[in-house]
Amino acid sequence: MLRIHFGWRDIQNIRLAQQPDPLWELMCAVCRWQTGQGPFAFGHWRHETAGRLARDPHAARALHTLRAFVPTSGYIPDLLTPPVTGEGLEAGLENVRATPRGRLVSELTRLAETHPAAGGAGSPRIPAAVSLGLVTNLLRDSFHTLLEPYWQHVRSSVGDDVAVRARTVLGGGTAALLESLRPFARWNPPYLEVDYPADRELRLEGRGLTLVPSYFCWRRPTALADPGLDPVLVYPIAKQPLDIVRAGEERLEHLLGRTRSAVLADVASHRVRTTTEVARSLGLAPASASYQVGVLRGAGLVVSCRQGKHVAHAATPLALSLLAGNGRSIRPASKAWSAS
């Protein structure tokens, strides 16, 4: 059990990440890949990923090497999961790259001491010459292999969880938020008692706690090993298996087309969304994103309203019903405005 000690200042400083953290999700996904846990939740993901790895030797080598840094249990170097900023994968990788050399050596030494190499011919091993550039490249390549094809669904599922927790806070405050972590954790003031594979004590000492919802976290929460770092608790969310989601997505794509259905899902996954945000999220040219939003607006699936210098878009109830009926996990969003 992990017992987290709260003071009154810590209660004031509980934060909830608003979107999935790419590197925490990657650590959890690498563990799920290796263990085979959750065959119903992750079986389709493993099958598709295995096919991509078979076709891409570079990706297979990168993941094989990264596995040496991410054992399935016990210590994982904290440098692989820098502070949660909500700024995306590249910002997280820059934080990894900025790790002091002394910390890299210290954490890899601890990893080697706690997880000696198995010695088999196929066992992943930490390279003899480890650089932060190598580590960040392994992380980036493995993210593209394991997570990028599913990232929109991961974001949507985490968004569902955030919406539920936010309503919990509004109705009952931070104590209700901590209570909502059952069955993974129990709020027993002034302690949060967390289901954990080892007995640990974590004293927040006024630093507060960041809660990070995770799609690939499985059965029990996880946390940083170093108690001196900013406290984080990563917890598993309810999830819809990807094969069910993919079937719904295919039906929606037949109706709207792949690009337009992706634009609609991106808009629906947020309270409001600007054209620039849609374009950046999906890798579209701004003119293309604007055109697709216009078509969706004409079909009654999106409403738009100018907010300052930008035009913001939101999904209509018809769009939300359409997405829900096709397997999309879209959180309901209370609009700041509505069409008359």
TrEMBL record:
InterPro entries (UniProt xref): ArsR-like_HTH, DUF5937, HTH_ArsR_DNA-bd_dom, WH-like_DNA-bd_sf, WH_DNA-bd_sf
Superkingdom classification of source: Bacteria
Pfam families recorded: DUF5937, HTH_20
Domain annotation HTH arsR-type: ranges: 250-328
The protein, known as: Helix-turn-helix domain-containing protein
Organism encoding this protein: Streptomyces griseoaurantiacus
